[in-house]
Prior knowledge:
The chain is α/β, with parallel strands linked by helices. 34% of the residues lie in helices and 15% in strands. β9, α5 and β10 form a beta-alpha-beta unit.
Amino acid sequence: MERRTIGAATLEVGAVGLGCMPMSWAYTGSRQRGEESLRTVHAALDLGTTLLDTADMYGPFTNELLVGRALRERRAEAFVSTKVGLLVGEQHLVANGRPGYVRRACDASLRRLQTDVIDLYQLHRADPEVPVEETWGAMADLVAAGKVRSLGLCAVGARSARRPGARPHDGRSPAGRPHDGRPHDGRPYDGRLHDGTIRQLERLQQVFPVSAVEAELSVWSTEALDALLPWCAARGVGFLAAMPLGNGFLTGTLTPGGGFEPDDVRARHPRFTAEMMAANQPIVAGLRRVARRHGDGVTPAQVALAWVLSRGRQVVPVPGAKRARWAAENAGAAGLRLTAEDLAEVAGLPGAQGSWD
Length: 357
């Protein structure tokens, strides 16, 4: 698989990562099977998918334990990313950025992951009651102690400023002028979604270098292209594209009205009502048209991932998967090269319908 680098430290990973969360948390619990998930991790590593993305809160804790079982045999082949700063409560999440907690949480993650060093340690959320510089300083101390190689910020979660009906970007600037390959959809500029993240990143950079930012980016969620991705590109910061398959919708395998189990986050997600899934089918149909031009074996999911990969050399999509065949399909997107015609067709797809909130 093609290799890409993360951050100024040029940490090298496979171009497509593996999001491990669905194996243990947030998605349909009845389909989460430990041995099958373990086979998925091994299959991904076999194909050159080296970045394994997890977090202590997934489960909680069980996802790190699962990844640790694979690392016990294949640590040298993997790039391990995990996260700190969120605790799971009853029907809610609580941020904890106190330095003492960060140090204890790191030691616990190392034990669960069965490794002596974490390649990328991400701040899952900033604690509003602790200056983010204090949290980041504690994380930097872990680098100095040799327990962590690099630091990142997870910017997934803020959705209040989304533009309804945003369209895939078409390679033009906010003013409608072509620019340096970072696309925009031609609508009036609206960088509000990530303004707070960028301000936070500027503060963190004063304490210790940010190697990577993880934020949502997909064909139907393109807001990161307005300001956040250009910020990363200008500073040599890697960009991990979370939810690049739109929580599974862009794979074309979900049936409108098919329903979700109560423990699945999509059961309460406005874009996954039967009405909204039906309304957004033209997006999947467009991805299918592009896929057909590349041969019978190419899927809408691979086109969606190839589109994310085309957004820049520092971009690494991290699709979630809990089956080996899905991990293999996702890995295959690294070899798919979209043409100018393909990119133009994706840019012309209708905007996603339905609120994210």
